[in-house]
Amino acid sequence: MHAPYRPAEPGAHRPSEGDVRRPSKGERTRARILDSATELFSRSGFHAVSLRDIAAHAGLTHAGLLHHFPGKESLLIEVLERRDRIDARELFPGIARPGAPVPPPAERLRLLIGVVARNTRTPGLVALYAKLSAEATDPAHPAHRYFTRRYRLLRAELSGLVRALQDEAGRPGDLDPAVVAGQLLALMDGLQTQWLLEPGAVPMEELVRDFLDRLGLLPSDGPKGAGRTGDAGGVSEGDGAAGVSG
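User: That's the sequence. What structure does it adopt?
Assistant: Structure tokens below.
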């Protein structure tokens, strides 16, 4: 998971439009199940939703759903990991594809802020992560291991990004990257909870920008207004992309 980043080899094959395979009927059914599970988990949390509820919402029988997912726990983890895979392709390509080329630090920061902006248009998925991350503090919860590992990876990857931004700004060692990464994750999670309670009172993107700017991590030629387009990954709420922080 932590293979060193390296640039793409000259002449390396890049997928063309013709390389994209159309999803099979089974894959489309799985995606429909995941969309239904995402919506219901977002609305009611993990424990209050049954597999029969998800099957009915997806237009399937209980047996039909079990053909694709053996249990609610495995379905939950797939819902969570699907969103992370989408965002990791843009923000942390070394996790999604070890050895993949990595965008410059300022571009990765732009993408991160774009995710914060996009979260304001995906309240269902923001609620999903807020509910489930709270539930998963119980070690017996099926997503406990997932969230523990997820935050560990995010702290490591954001620490690396902060360090790279410091180096570009000519301020190496000015701040502890691990401390800043933990503060940034805490800020994003806390803002999302406040935003869910009172959306109009909490400008998440603006407050994240302000935090980064106060630390000297927002490049002067960097992501001005980048997140406002919401195009940090080109995916919609139905695709399971609500961002890095839950």
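The chain has ten helices and no strands.
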